[in-house]
Request: fold
Amino acid sequence: MFLSRLVCAFVLVACGGCRRAAGVPGEAERPEPELLEVEVGATALLKCGASRSQGNASHDWFSVHKEKPVLIFRVRQGQGQSEPGEYQHRLSLQDGGATLALTQVTPHDERIFLCQGKRPRSQEHRTQLRVFKAPEEPSIQANTVGISVNSPEPEEVATCVGRNGYPLPQVTWYKDGQPLREDRNRVHIQSSQIVESSGLYTLQSVLKAQLLKEDRGAQFYCELSYRLPSGNHMKESREVTVPVFYPAEKVWLEVEPVGTLKEGDRVEIRCLADGHPPPHFSISKQNLSTREMEEERTEDNGVLVLQPALKEHSGRYECQGLDLETMASLVSDPQELLVNYVSDVRVSPAAPEGQEGSNLSLTCDAESSQALEFQWLREETGEVLARGPELHLRALQRTAGGPYRCVAWAPSVPGLNRSRLVDVAVAGPPWMAQKERKVWVRQNALLNLSCEASGRPRPTISWTVAGAASEQDRGPHSVLSILTVLVTPELLETGAECVASNALGRNSTTILLALESNRTAGPSAPTVSPHGRANSTSTEKKLREPESKGVVIVAVTVCVLVLAVLGAVVYFLYKKGRLPCGRSGKQEMERNTSI
Reply:
């Protein structure tokens, strides 16, 4: 029995030695393979070990996949030959046959490559090829619909996708820079992968969570961690936010602009809440008569626009918010709104009137929500006449008549002011635009004579000569009369007089007429109706005779008198025979004197 067991053991040992001598790969004791790391698309340099460094070596290369070796390349005396198959066109020898180069490495190449020497001395060298590929930049898609804090289970927050990486990268989710961990009740992370035809992985990770009100505005992003031959790396996605829905707990009112309000401002009363989405708002104002809150009509949800704001808008306001999902209602604290105003500016007397030479006092008053100050201005010039509610006009003159403005303003509210315009009437006898003027005319011609007067009461105008008269209004207290007459000798002699009168007196203007044929110098400028006059004195300036005309007339008269005297003296001397003149001279003298 012992002998038979000994024979069997000897046979087994002998058979094992025969298999090793036959060079069957994978049967000998396998040392740890050499590790070679290469990125996708690069070239892997497979070494056959130190004993195969000589150029005349002979060995074979095997691809071992799932413990099955497949011959892919033969080396004989430093010359290589690829075997048909997937590596046929990607293998070549380098370093005199000691190195096998594998180009365009793919994830499918991640396996063991075996180099085995030929007899008589059979040796093998194993190389483990590891392949790496960085994933593309991760893309992230957030939930745009929104998540309610009342959701009973975690809802999808965002989805992260990392494409074309190898091996499969690791994903980590972050919220506001802090990593998120799996929590059965609050945080779920579901990841899946797809193997592309290229052998690369596409990773998809879905983050689900139960969010709180405090998570509104939180920034979520994902991170992909991966390894390359150069070391560990990571890529981050962009940050995203997710709408978070939560019920309102409080509503309140805000008024814009902030600060003191006045009439004429654009005022917005806005209703706000701390819920998202906001509830349905309504704004109410207290009725001063019934003390009840009455809803105001608004164009926008929760916004009441007062434009322009009036003093009637002052009062107590409140906001009501209605959650349309839970039908819960919230009411804000009441808020008082004050619109400052100045109104009902009054001047007493309302229609002030005084006679020339008298005194007149005006008083201004107004209503306001603030203390007021007053000042009086002359409307035509803007001159400040007095500060305070009273204006005293003493010794009235005709020029004091016209518009005055009382301005009331509140110093505590910039820009708040109102004013009242009042017209001061100064009563007196008529005032003539011109007292006297001279008009150059042609005899037997039609002539328009004009006369303008003003006064309070409004005067009436009459003429001392006959003609066709017409009137034009120059204002509420002024009148212009135009008289059309025929120039006759009698009219030239008497001239014309315009008489204006009212209840307080009368006044007149005298118009002197002179023939143009008697005017020796200066342009001919007969007077017609003053429709083209710029003011009440323009006609007078136009018709005023230049002073140089009188000088010329006087000079001519003196010359004539001197010549007459000189002629008389010469004639007297001639009659006395004291001038030795011949007959021809006498005849010449006679001719001269006859002229």
Summary: DSSP finds five helices and 44 strands in the chain. Helices lie at 2-21, 489-494, 538-543, 548-575, 583-594.
